[in-house]
Amino acid sequence: MQSEVITFRTAGSVLFGNNAVEKLGSISAQLAAKRALIVTDKGIVKSGLLDRLKQCVAGLAHEVYDDIDHTPSFETIRRCTRFAKEGQFDLVIGFGGGSVMDAAKAVSVMATNPGKVEDYLGFDKVRVPPLRKILITTTSGTGSEVTIYAMLAQRDNPPYVIDGIFDRYCLPEYAIVDPTLTLGVPPSLTANTGIDALSHATECYVNIKSSFHNKPFAWEAVRLTSQNLEKATAVGGDLEARHNMSAGSLLAGMAFTQSGSGIGHGLGEAFQVEYNVQHGTAIAIVLPHVMAFNLAEAPAPYAELAQAMGITGLPQRTLAERAVERMREIIRHIGLPTRLREVGIPENDLEKIAKAALELSPSLFKKNVRPVGEKEVLYLLRQAF
């Protein structure tokens, strides 16, 4: 019996479906917005997607800030916050991938709260309500449009690490998930964001905080992403595959914001910034090894995920092992690296990375279904090398 009190958190309203972005104008009117800041990146501007968005808010005064980097840095948030304060906006519209979502959330917080972004890192430190926001994702990956997390990169000085603002105030009034916005995403980005969504669902399904409040979302997210990621990567214009990936990413975001992710993320985030490795790639390299390590003690949830992947009719332990095999297969098919050495990480740095992982993400390691310390973390990194 579940004895712990559970809180379910997600966006105020979620709009999902083809051409859902066209509802943006009416939503902005409902919010009685007078002046909007559109936070995006230069890739979105170059792709032409921003022009489509502007048509949807033609009657709303707005300005665009497009200088958002991958896993936004503290300095990026400082610059964008200054822009937001000077512009006296009453609405933030985040339009892009996970990095843009995270930046929009952080800026909405910092535009109304005193002090530095560093003051709000960690859980539940925001005191003043942020600027209202609408988050519109253009990728199928982080699920950031419905999570409490604003992931940021500390690049001001070593150690270069991932941290963030984790707070209910990061949740938007509205999230819009429109699969048609993802049709032009190139294969490499589709692969990196898609494996992130699949890993979110996988890890939050298995960790010890997982419960009835997130498991149905996570299981369905694994089903949708595992059975559509390869096609979406290979045939980017396949709207059905894109639709299913968008749905899977959304459900994964709703699931892992309840229970957190797992040590695959703890390991990946310990080296991705310093070695300039894309987030999805970092997770892809370590996740199968984490799954193989954990199933020795907890085969049941992995067996259940194997069924979500379409594998049935086998004993529990065999199903769990097949889930790991299927994950490896997906990663190979979408063309992501599978070894730390492939992304330029020297073997001599593994001990440093192991210590950093435990220091930076202690809560993720405490939630793992199998006890882990520095010895086990180093073992996993060596397996992935």
Key descriptive features of the protein:
single chain, alpha/beta, Rossmann fold, Dehydroquinate synthase-like, alpha domain, six-stranded parallel β-sheet
Write the layout of secondary structure elements.
Layout: E1 13-16, H1 24-30, E2 35-39, H2 42-47, H3 49-56, E3 61-65, H4 74-87, E4 91-96, H5 98-110, E5 122-123, E6 132-137, E7 149-154, E8 161-166, E9 174-177, H6 187-206, H7 215-226, H8 229-234, H9 239-259, H10 263-271, H11 279-295, H12 299-308, H13 316-333, H14 350-360, H15 362-366, H16 374-384
Parallel strand pairs: 1-9, 2-3, 2-4, 4-6, 5-8, 6-9
Antiparallel strand pairs: 7-8
Helix pairs in contact: 4-5, 6-7, 6-9, 6-11, 7-9, 7-12, 10-11, 10-14, 11-13, 11-16, 12-13, 14-16
Please describe what this structure looks like.
The chain is an alpha/beta fold. It has helices at residues 24-30, 42-47, 49-56, 74-87, 98-110, 187-206, 215-226, 229-234, 239-259, 263-271, 279-295, 299-308, 316-333, 350-360, 362-366, 374-384; strands spanning 13-16, 35-39, 61-65, 91-96, 122-123, 132-137, 149-154, 161-166, 174-177. Strand 7 and strand 8 form a beta hairpin. The termini are far apart.
